[in-house]
Each structure stands twice: as C-alpha cells, then as structure tokens.
Amino acid sequence: MIQIPEIFLRGISPAIILGVAGILVMILGLFIRKGAATVGGIISGVAVLLAFVANADLRGLNQTAFSTLVTLDGYTWFFNLLILFALGMTILTSFRYLADETNDLYEYFVLLLFAGTGMMFMVSGNHILTIFVGLETLSISVYVLTGILSKSPKSSEAALKYLILGSCSSGLFLYGAALLYGASGTLGLPGLAKYFQTGSYTLMGAVGMGLLLTGFAFKVAAVPFHMWTPDVYEGAPSPVTGFMSVGVKAVAFAAFIRVFFESLQALQVNWTNILWVLAVATMIVGNLAAIVQNNIKRMLAYSSIAHAGYILVGMIAGTAAGVSGVLYYLLAYTFTNIGAFGIVTLVGRKGEANVYLDDYRGLG
To answer: What is the dihedral of CA 81, 305, 151, 114, to 10 degrees?
Structure first.
C-alpha cells in the first residue's frame, strides 16, 4: 500500500508565493510589449511583502514536513526574513538601474524570484538533496543574472567564469553527497548524524564530508576557493552583486551550519581543524587584497571574502553562542552591504559607470 506523505503547504508558503510570482511575471512579460520590467518589478515587490506576511505565520513552529525533507523552525524563519529583506532591497534598487540601462528586462525579476525560492529551500532543507535542489535553483538563476547585460563584455565574462567554477563546486558537492549515501545509506541529516555518532564511519564517509565542505567553501568564497569572487562581482550588474554578496552568502552559511552542526557534529574535531585554516587564510587574503584595489566593486568583493573568514570563526567555536554570533553578524552584514551596493548602483548613473574610488571624491 502506497502511503501519501503529509503535505504542509503552509510551511513553504513564502517559497510558493515567490515561485508563483516568478511564473506570473514570466507569462505577463510575453504579452506586455512596453513597460514589462516595471510591471514585473511591482509584482515582485508585492510578492515579497506577501511572503513576509506568510513567513510571520511560521514563527514558533518547530517541526519537519514533507516526509522530514524540510525543517520548519526558528532558524528557517530567521533566514527567510534575511532572504526577503535582501530580495526586497535588490528589487527597489533595480528599478533605477534598469531604467538607466534602457532595457525592458522583465526576466531580471523572474530570475530574482526564482533565486529567492531556491534560497528558502536551501535554508529549510533537512536532506542533502533538498539542499542541493535549492542550491541549483539559486545558482542557475544567479548565473543568468550575472550575464543578463548581454552587450557588456565584462558581464558575459563574469557569467561564464561563475558558471564554470560554480558547476565544478556543485559537482564536488554532489559527489560528496553520493559518497555519504554510499557509506551511510541515507542523505537525511538525522540519519547521517546517527551514522557518524557510531564512530565506525568509513573512509568513504570522511571523503564525502570533505567534498561537501569544499562545495560550501566555494559558495561562501573562502580562500582558496575565492578566485571567482572579484571578477564576478565586478562584471555583474551592481544590484545583482549586492544580492550575491549578502543573500547568496547568507544562505550558503545557513546550509553549511545546518549540515555540519546537525549531521556531522560527531566529526567536529576533524572539520574544525580544516575550518580554522580556511578562516585565517580568508581573513588575511581578503583584507590585504582589498587594500590595493581601486575599483569599488572589487574592493567590496575582497571585503566580502574577509567577512566570510570572520563568520567561519563563529562556526569554529562550535557552540550555540558561536552560531548565535554568526546569525547576528549576518543580520548586520546584510543591512550594511546592501546599503553599500545600493550606493554603488545610485552613483553609477548609466549602468556600470563611476566604479572607481576617484569617482567617489566629494560624495560626503
């Protein structure tokens, strides 16, 4: 007898709202000849507000849904708020940017909404494949957003670099998941936790953990997996760069923490030894490289790399206080970095102009 799993749509209602809005904008864009981007932006903004309301209804939940594939708890609620704030601010700054570009790119808002949908499944995933599906939904949307200015060589180059390196990191992540499944027979986070707690894990399981760590390190731009960041941040449209620097980084850390603290806690000594090396290297390289930059977007890119090192320190602590520190840091980081890239967008006027430090003289 086939059992139909319990369907709890209310638990994923914010993601459903963003996904449906993205489909609606995509369909309307086919029929509206002029002003499609403006209509898409308005619908996207309304969808974000509705998702805020739906997410407020999830506060206080502490349960799993969809056959334990999704976790609905305070952690998910918090990161949903961060995602929606980053998405809302990106949509607001994009109106002016797209008007300056004189492009009626309604697809821009479709991709933003789909990226937000993927992000929400990443932060709520209680199964490695749920997290991976969310990761790929996010990544593919951001790859296209990076190169959406087809007439800009820098934008096209950045998109190609991001696609190639991002695909490699996704492959490593998936191979890691395959090895973990081969070793433990499960990809659910609770099942993996039980497997590693026995202490009888195999080399296959340890290698799988290492590949997962590498995949996450790429997504958070930790040294030495940071090479893509400056070029992609420079070439991508400024609002997209802001969205990547806060939204993508926040959800990558959210999934990173959930996987390693919930399923790989028994191996904390092993992965902590790796993370502290990455953290030190990331802080040093990020800050030293930022000093010599004269392009504001590249400087902020290296600053973003350095911040990844600071956030890794909270993970290395391995305590509830450390995780709380990471959440607080990401909240403050989201507000400040979205503001910084908002200024870059507004000062840029026509497209990607005024991106050098000299262009900001007298701004105060």
So the answer is: -30
Q: Under DSSP, is residue 104 helix (H, G, I), strand (E, B) or coil?
A: coil
Distance of CA 80 to the CA centre of its chain: 12
Q: What is the pTM of this model?
A: 0.91
Please name every residue paired with 63 in a beta bridge, in sequence order, or none if there are none.
72
Q: How far is CA 38 from CA 97, 99, 102, 348, in A?
A: 12, 9, 12, 20
d(CA 20, CA 38): 18
Give the DSSP per-residue string, 340-352: HHHHHHHHHTTTT
Report how far residue 165's alpha carbon sits from residue 171's, in angstroms, rounded to the nearest whole number. Answer: 10
Q: Helices marked H in the chain — which ranges?
A: 13-31, 36-56, 74-101, 107-124, 128-146, 153-184, 189-197, 203-219, 228-235, 238-243, 249-262, 268-291, 296-317, 320-348
Beta bridge partners of 280: none
Cα–Cα distance for residue pair 67/58, rounded to 1 Å: 18
How far, in Å, CA of 84 to CA of 257, rounded?
20
Those residues with Cβ within 8 angstroms of residue 202's Cβ, 6 or more apart along the chain or in another chain: 183
Looking at the chain, how many residues does it have?
A: 364
Query: Mean per-residue pLDDT for 15-25?
Result: 94
* pLDDT tens by residue, 190-233: 888 888 887 777 788 888 888 999 999 998 889 888 888 888 88
- Residue 131 CA to residue 304 CA, distance in Å, equals 23
CB atoms within 10 A of CB 142: 26
Please say whether the beta carbons of 62 and 98 come within 8 A.
no
For residue range 239-262, what is the model confidence (pLDDT) as tens digits?
888 898 888 889 999 999 999 888
SS3 147: coil
The residue with tokens 């027979």 is 185
